[in-house]
Target: Nucleolar protein 2
Amino acid sequence: MAGRPAPKKGANKAASPAQTNNNKRKSNPSKEPSSKKAKVAPVAAKGGKKSAKAAAPQDDSEDDESWAYGAVSGSDDSEIEEMDDEFVSAEEGSDIEVGALNDDFLGDEFAESDEESKGPGAAMFGSDDEDEEGQGEEEDEEDIFASNSEDDSDEDDMEAKSRKLDAAAQAEAEEAEAEMQTNIMLESDKYVLPGDDHEILQSTDLQVVQARIQEIVRVLNNFRDMREGNRSRNDYISQLLKDLCLYYGYNEYLMEKLFYIFPVSEAIEFFEANEVPRPVTIRTNTLKTRRRELAQSLINRGVNLDPVGKWSKVGLQVFDSPVPIGATPEYLAGHYMLQAASSFLPVMALAPQEHERVLDMASAPGGKSTYIAALLKNTGMVFANDANKDRTKSLVANIHRLGVKNAVVCNYDGREFPGVIGGFDRVLLDAPCSGTGVISKDASVKTNKSEQDFQMLSQLQKQLILAAIDSVDAGSKTGGYIVYSTCSVTVDENEDVVNYALKKRPNVKLVSTGLDFGKEGFTRFREKVFHPSISLTRRYYPHMHNMDGFYVAKFKKVSNKIPKKEDNVDLDEEEEFTPIVEEATKRNRGGKKSPGAAAKAVEEVEQIGFNANEDEELIRASQAKLLQTQKGIKLRPKKSA
Ligand SMILES: C[S@@+](CC[C@H](N)C(=O)[O-])C[C@H]1O[C@@H](n2cnc3c(N)ncnc32)[C@H](O)[C@@H]1O
Model:
């Protein structure tokens, strides 16, 4: 980025059509199929249209929320009806065949193909029709001549026939020419990538850069027809990455990391969504009030709000408020927590049951701990831990304000668990992360995260996840679950960490998060292949779900003993302990098991700890591979000390 001007946020980009105010009522995320949002993206965007299906909310039969709409909107009923309808459509749309979908859910792709058939195709048929019509007129005219000259000589007859043949030949030639025209891509449609010393390439004018981004995306979406000469996809992508860094203000390392998570057009939607604030949301504290009562009190103060979506029974989205929402009497009385919608998700996935002992391993400032306490109805115990002592102050304050009576606040490095205390029914690890899902809240992430930071973070996350797993009692009557979450969208901090945990702790398996929206976790990413069960984990994106980027994975611990890796055990026998082996076994040998050998395997256990040296080697090997495949650089093997 050195030498590049800082992007003028909001200046040149004012023209960007995707710059919508997410706090306006109409932009309620789960009510707006993303196929619609995709249409306003600055660059031809097809990504995300599946999210209408993905965002299908769960049934909310317990709470009748019609009150909120009526009360909030007053005379605005028609608008609300409309939003409700869209929402229902999204839900229904998830189950019906594409052929039965209405236009909204067919998405841009279908709309475009419709357009196309009306476009060049229509023109082609139009000219055919004209030709035929013209020819018909000519024939009629000839018929008139013919009938008027019944007694004419053979010579005249020959002339007429010859004229007719000429006309037919001419029409055929014109038709052939017309066909060629519709099939040939105009040279001007191709995007000529500027040469190195080209004036346009040097331009840092954000409008020029934005136009170039749009052009390159257009080419990449139709590469075969629109590329210039022998230019490779990489030529276009490397220019695009530079332009995206310039336009959105990311460092090159992070830009590349994020760019490859999405198809090209969707990546632009993601970066664009990071420029727009997410909706303000609050969580009703059910230890003190109910959502209906809270909403009524806030409405009486002039606050404009709505339920956050059918997927949550406690969330409210605040559109605007004449009073600071973090200082109302209701807030001070602990009736709600100001909390991002995405951060409800890991607690919903954890699904704590009354009277359980739950550990929140990295808990400050306590949004999730206090939600756990509320779901426990102040029974059982929440151990709210955080390594940062300063941050535990706000954690304690929130616990008091919200009337939580079943919490113990502690200040340990999470990696010390279960040495501190273990045997929990459930553990939540909302891990420290890079924050790439919350760039709209903290733009400094764009530039302040280096490759080293990502390596350190993922190493810490791997250590913490093993500690979280080891802190759970697999024998818990009601639980035995671990939820891992981050507010980051990078694969290193999510699927990679979960995959590592599955390898190191074969006594856990992934289970459904129970969240019925969100994109599946990756089972493959670039050169990496992960365990197939990682598709059970869920990803959330700002451009798709209109909430912070988030990741949620849920494990079930099936044994307190960790089978020894190098044990000479028949794969069949190990299946109840190792999800990875379980899959292979089922595929290869029909999934039979013999409990005797499995029991023998667990008798000889080892505590698999985090092995920093082993990981360093793995990280280095993967970096070397990446450098070689992408940049052709071959690293020399590291000399041993
Ligand atoms: C994403 S935040 C947690 C947010 C919190 N769960 C909530 O909902 O309010 C991550 C937290 O991890 C804490 N942390 C960082 N390293 C840690 C470690 N080694 N052990 C425990 N906590 C740690 C940070 O202090 C930070 O508060």
The longest strand covers residues 550-557. Residues 343, 361-368, 386-388, 391, 413-415, 430, 432 surround S-adenosylmethionine (CB under 6 Å).
